[in-house]
């Protein structure tokens, strides 16, 4: 269904079949609305299941990402007290969660929105990536987001075979980009992004040397406890775990691309002995260094070929 009774509206309500739903994420609605100062909100033309009175609010059975690119207004939900949202705010609505929102009469607003549902979104909520208690993302005006909303609208109009899967990909990118921008903004405000970047450079430049997270924290003029907490919040890894992952990646690269012996690689990466390197590598990849080298160089080809020829 398309709503275009107003030239400043461009709205699509989209169907999904049973197979689409098994994809993990389907898009239900998408659109753009330009609400001028003193205009009635929401404008007429929406299906009954979407239309609402700002005084009474509503409950949807889908997630919606609403991006305000001009103007401002108010948002309130079952889990969020009334809050002013402005240009650059993205509001996330949750299924089954009462909410209401509207632009101020003085400014109106421009809004992009996309509605979706599926296990993929439910899982992100379950794992704590998205929360009803934090429905507002202050991400500023970002042309990448506007492009994605417009690309989704274009895809929905074309309705080529598999278009729901394309829309799902766009919705996923919108969600991921919003999460990333919001997280980066949080750390920029705390003035720690530069310190974390510097820490990662130190780690990369010293994978073959004896360097401890405590020593890195000292170089950054941070306490170790503060450094460890901030580093894990930013990267998802504890500092020592990140160093080990860098060692693993370099070990894999050396095994694939050089003729160094296993003993030499262990020495380059500053492992105390070859046996410890073997144990470290096997624990991470469930392969010994020798097995990984043989597999990465195609030396398993004959064995695999023999299996398929039986």
TrEMBL record:
<keyword id="KW-0805">Transcription regulation</keyword>
<dbReference type="InterPro" id="IPR009057">
    <property type="entry name" value="Homeodomain-like_sf"/>
</dbReference>
<dbReference type="InterPro" id="IPR018060">
    <property type="entry name" value="HTH_AraC"/>
</dbReference>
<dbReference type="GO" id="GO:0043565">
    <property type="term" value="F:sequence-specific DNA binding"/>
</dbReference>
<dbReference type="Pfam" id="PF02311">
    <property type="entry name" value="AraC_binding"/>
</dbReference>
<dbReference type="GO" id="GO:0003700">
    <property type="term" value="F:DNA-binding transcription factor activity"/>
</dbReference>
<dbReference type="InterPro" id="IPR018062">
    <property type="entry name" value="HTH_AraC-typ_CS"/>
</dbReference>
<dbReference type="Pfam" id="PF12833">
    <property type="entry name" value="HTH_18"/>
</dbReference>
<protein>
    <submittedName>
        <fullName>HTH-type transcriptional activator RhaS</fullName>
    </submittedName>
</protein>
<keyword id="KW-0238">DNA-binding</keyword>
<dbReference type="InterPro" id="IPR037923">
    <property type="entry name" value="HTH-like"/>
</dbReference>
<feature type="domain" description="HTH araC/xylS-type">
    <location>
        <begin position="197"/>
        <end position="295"/>
    </location>
</feature>
<keyword id="KW-0804">Transcription</keyword>
<dbReference type="InterPro" id="IPR003313">
    <property type="entry name" value="AraC-bd"/>
</dbReference>
């Amino acid at each position: 269904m398309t709503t275009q009774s107003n030239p400043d509206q461009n709205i699509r309500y989209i169907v999904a079949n049973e197979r689409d739903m098994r994809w993990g994420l389907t898009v239900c609605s998408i659109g753009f609305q330009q609400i001028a100062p003193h205009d009635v909100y929401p404008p007429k033309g929406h299906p009954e299941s979407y239309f609402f009175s700002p005084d009474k609010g509503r409950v949807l059975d889908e997630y919606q990402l609403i991006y305000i690119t001009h103007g401002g207004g108010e948002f309130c939900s079952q889990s969020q007290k009334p809050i002013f949202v402005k240009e650059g705010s993205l509001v996330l609505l949750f299924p089954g969660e009462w909410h209401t929102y509207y632009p101020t009469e003085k400014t109106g607003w421009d809004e992009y929105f996309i509605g979706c549902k599926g296990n993929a979104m439910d899982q992100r909520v379950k794992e704590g990536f998205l929360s009803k208690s934090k429905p507002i993302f202050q991400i500023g005006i970002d042309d990448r987001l506007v492009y994605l909303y417009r690309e989704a609208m274009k895809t929905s109009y074309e309705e080529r075979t598999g278009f729901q899967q394309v829309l799902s990909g766009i919705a996923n990118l919108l969600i991921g980009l919003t999460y990333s921008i919001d997280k980066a903004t949080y750390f920029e405000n705390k003035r720690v992004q530069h310190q974390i970047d510097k820490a990662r450079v130190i780690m990369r430049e010293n994978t073959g040397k004896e360097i401890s997270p405590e020593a890195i924290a000292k170089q950054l003029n941070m306490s170790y406890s503060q450094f460890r907490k901030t580093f894990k919040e930013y990267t998802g890894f504890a500092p020592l775990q990140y160093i080990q992952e860098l060692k693993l990646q370099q070990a894999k690269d050396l095994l694939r691309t050089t003729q160094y012996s296993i003993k030499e690689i262990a020495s380059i990466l500053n492992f105390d002995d070859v046996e410890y390197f073997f144990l470290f590598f096997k624990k991470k990849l469930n392969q010994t260094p020798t097995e990984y080298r043989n597999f990465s160089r195609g030396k398993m080809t004959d064995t695999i070929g023999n299996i398929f020829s039986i």
